[in-house]
Write a structure and sequence with these properties.
With about 130 residues, this protein is of the alpha+beta class. It has a single domain, classed as S-adenosylmethionine decarboxylase.
Length: about 130
Amino acid sequence: MNGLHLTADLYDCANQALLRDADALMALCRSAVAEAGLQAVAERWHPFPPGPEGPGGLTGVILLAESHLAIHTWPERAAVTLDVYVCNFGRDNSAAAEQLLARLQQAFAPARQQLERLQRGRAWSA
């Protein structure tokens, strides 16, 4: 369970079409996972209907052999949250997690962002 958990809250995203285009978002996430050298094993996506504040967002998860990528978009706020977790069992996947997150940040082009980095399972390796 030793691993790296990265989260990113992205605000004022320049690429707003990506926040509501399910096909484009799925393609981006799949290619970013592959480019990072991680192994997708399953995925699930859910589009939300438009509401009083504007177009509906998207929620998705790609299950990885190494753990997961989760993404949630809010088109009405030009915002997205990202969650990348990789375990380091057998090999250190930290660089792959960083690469995956960086690729997604680049695609959304946020004006502002809040990033968190958590090393998990330290007690396990002690």
